[in-house]
Amino acid sequence: MRAAAYPRQQQRQRPAMEPAPGLTIASHVPVPQYLKA
Protein backbone atom coordinates (compact mmCIF):
# COMPACT_ATOMS: atom_id res chain seq x y z
CA MET A 1 0.00 0.00 0.00
CA ARG A 2 2.81 2.41 0.87
CA ALA A 3 4.56 1.69 -2.44
CA ALA A 4 1.53 3.09 -4.28
CA ALA A 5 1.86 6.42 -2.48
CA TYR A 6 5.61 6.79 -3.07
CA PRO A 7 5.54 6.95 -6.90
CA ARG A 8 2.86 9.66 -6.76
CA GLN A 9 4.96 11.82 -4.46
CA GLN A 10 8.06 11.31 -6.62
CA GLN A 11 6.13 12.37 -9.73
CA ARG A 12 4.85 15.50 -7.95
CA GLN A 13 8.37 16.44 -6.84
CA ARG A 14 9.81 15.75 -10.29
CA PRO A 15 7.44 17.17 -12.94
CA ALA A 16 9.73 15.86 -15.69
CA MET A 17 9.05 12.27 -14.55
CA GLU A 18 5.30 12.85 -14.21
CA PRO A 19 4.43 11.59 -17.74
CA ALA A 20 4.64 7.98 -18.97
CA PRO A 21 8.42 7.61 -18.20
CA GLY A 22 7.83 7.60 -14.43
CA LEU A 23 4.90 5.19 -14.67
CA THR A 24 6.78 2.91 -17.06
CA ILE A 25 9.88 2.71 -14.87
CA ALA A 26 7.76 2.06 -11.77
CA SER A 27 5.94 -0.72 -13.60
CA HIS A 28 9.10 -2.41 -14.87
CA VAL A 29 11.33 -1.87 -11.84
CA PRO A 30 10.21 -2.45 -8.22
CA VAL A 31 9.07 0.70 -6.44
CA PRO A 32 11.61 0.46 -3.57
CA GLN A 33 14.52 0.17 -6.02
CA TYR A 34 13.18 3.06 -8.09
CA LEU A 35 13.00 5.26 -4.99
CA LYS A 36 16.46 4.27 -3.74
CA ALA A 37 17.97 4.77 -7.20
Helix content: over 70%
Q: Segments where pLDDT lies below 50 for 5+ residues?
A: none
Q: How does the helix and strand content classify structurally? A: mainly alpha
Task: Sketch the topology as an H/E string, one letter per element.
Answer: HHH
Task: Estimate what percentage of residues fall within beta strands.
Answer: under 5%
What number of structural domains do the residues give?
Answer: 1
Note the total helix count.
Answer: 3
- Globular, elongated, flat, extended or rod-shaped: what is the shape? globular
N-to-C CA distance: 20 Å
- Largest sheet, if any? none
Question: How many beta strands in the DSSP annotation?
Answer: 0
Report the radius of gyration as a whole number of Å. Answer: 9 Å
Q: What is the typical, i.e. mean, pLDDT?
A: 56
Describe the fold and architecture.
This protein has helices at 2-13, 20-28, 31-36. With 37 residues, the chain is mainly alpha-helical. The protein has one domain. The longest helix is centred in the first third of the chain and has 12 residues, at 2-13.
Keywords:
about 35 residues; mainly alpha; 3 helices
Give the gist of this structure:
The chain has 37 residues and is mostly helical.
List the helices and strands and how they pair.
Elements: H1 2-13, H2 20-28, H3 31-36
